[in-house]
Every structure is written in C-alpha cells, then in structure tokens.
Amino acid sequence: MCGRTACTLAPDEVSRACSYRSRGGQRRQPRWRDGDADKYRPSYNKSPQSTSPVLLSQRHFDKDAPVDECVLASMRWGLVPAWFKEDDPRKMQYSTSNCRSENILEKKSYKSPLNKGQRCVILADGFYEWRREEKSKQPFFIYFPQTPSGSSQEKTEDQDDLATSAQSKETSERACSAEGGAFDSTEEGEAPCEWTGWRLLTMAGLFDCWTPPGGGEALYTYSVITVNASPNLQSIHDRMPAVLDGEEEVRRWLDFGEVKSPDALKLLQTKNSLTFHPVSSLVNNSRNNSAECLQPVDPGSKKEPKPTASSKRMMSWLTSSAPTKRKESDCCESEQQQQKGKSKTPLKSTGALQLWLQGANKKPKTN
C-alpha cells in the first residue's frame, strides 16, 4: 500500500521537474491550473486527506486543448466518488487512498472514473513504507534512484561523482537564468531547459470530482493505484504504488483519448526500479514535518549509516540547490495544522535537506 509520501519541491520546481516532450518533440513545461499552485504545500510527511500535486490531461478541464497537453492540479488524497450523496466527504465509511489494480473494474468507486478516462499521475519525492518487525515497525523511504544523468539506473558508489553532479547543476541553473529565469516557462509553455534536479516519483492514479449535494465548490480527489511489490521491496511490504517509469509511460497513462482503458491497465505492472533507505520513526506521526523524516538511519546502531550512492546523490543535490530559489520557511508547515486553523510555527532547522527547501536568510516573497 501507499499511506505516506513526501513532496518537498516548491510549486515552480514541480512544474519544471515534470516537463515533457510534445508529439512534435518540443519540451513543454506543464502549467498549474488556476489557483492550484497556492493550494499545494511542500511537505516531508504527507498523509491521506492532504493535498498533493497531480499531473493530468488539460482536456479534463478544456475540451479544446491539444490532446497531448498536460496540466498540474492540487488534489486531495482519498477519492470521493462523484455519486457520493452525503454533504461531507469525511462521512465516507471506507478508505479510498489506495486502489488495488486487480480490483479496479470490480469497485464502482474506481470503475466509473476509469471508464471516463480520469487517469492521473501523483507526484512525490518518494513514499514511506513500514516493515513489520518483532516488536515494532521500521519505516523506509522509497524513491527513484538518483543519478547525475537523471537515469533510473543506479550507479555504483565509485561512479557517483557528486562533485561533478553539483557542478553540472550549478552550470545548468546559470544557463537557465541566462535564458530568462531558472524556474519560469516561456509564454508558450516551453520549458527553458531540462530539469536536472530530483527525479520525482510518478505513480499512476485515478481521480474524481465531487460537488456537495447542496451546491458549492467542486472537490478534486485521487486514489493511488497499487500492485504487488517488486522483489527488492517484498521484504518491506507486499504492495507498492503502480510506478510509471519514464515519459512514455506517463504520456500513455494520461492520454485517455488515444490509449483506451484496457491498454492503459497493461501499464500497471510491478517494476523493480526503486531504491530505499531506512528512516527514523519520527515519520510515524504525520504531524512531524521536518527533514529528519527523510534522513537515512541505521536501525541497529546509533551511528550514522554508510550512505548508498542514491542517498548521497539525494543529499548532494539538495545541499547544492541555490537557497535563493526556495520558498520561505512556512511552505512546509504541517498541513494538518493548517486545516485545523492553528497558528503558524517555524520549523526547527534539522539539516541540509530543510535548508535546501526553505533557503538560508531568504526574505519572504511579496506579490
């Protein structure tokens, strides 16, 4: 299953990170749906009922949009069917945060969105999963292997030249800035340069749009589709998200006009393309929202664990990112606290990952 994720990129970075090539071969940068960038809040510890960035076809909102045009939207985790009759989605009596791939056509909540082509891609740095142990559960952070080339193939440690990677990233950022802004698309939506940062995990999902029976604002929600765990993850859990590995799989999953449901379902396969590392039990409580949730730990020792090539790549890239391009410190405030209307409290500094996200000595943005 998938019950907790992390997505720490700022809205403009999410847009750059999921750039894609159009049918004409032009690299495009998806725009956020009107107002949705403000609804999304980066977080180290996202749980069901929180809001996450989702990639989908623009045709769901504009029937005249090009068939291959994508858009970003903020959606709530936990699908609320359009036919749900209660006045409050919290009154649902069953969980829809995950949808088993083998049961999609058997469940009304998922069969209807699938038949309507309401397929989406949930974006995240990675997801958390817990391995049952004798007296407790050990959490792990699971994500695409990160390499300087952006490939999903993991490199060996002696090949993982972190200094070269950081230098390449700085060069890329300077080049982007010279073209008119490292995190802005052109007016036509063309991406100014390819994203060389963190490779986001792309998970297949279904979404629906629910409107209160008495009228009101429409609520967009989604469910993460799951499959049997890959061989390297079976020791942690028997299920995993249905991962779409590469632009072509993402394109086919989203193109509900050209790729009909039977063919789209064939994309939902177990893939042995993810890596992982153990993390602190701090992540067990969804109220904890700090860089410590992601940092590797050694479950059997108090000493710092020897980092893997991918975890070193992760920390290197996060550390090397320009702090002046990060959101201010309240961008990662606990979403649950926001929903309950609690006052904002600054997050305690916990290392390179948080500094990367928040930015050092950054003044708040002004509109």
From TrEMBL:
Residue span of region Disordered: 20-52, 147-190, 285-367
- Enzyme Commission designation: 3.4.-.-
Q: Locations of Polar residues compositional bias?
A: 308-323
A Pfam family that this protein carries is: SRAP
EC top class named in words = hydrolase
Keyword Hydrolase assigned: yes
Superkingdom of the source? Eukaryota
Could you identify this protein by its name? Answer: Abasic site processing protein HMCES
Species this protein is from: Scophthalmus maximus
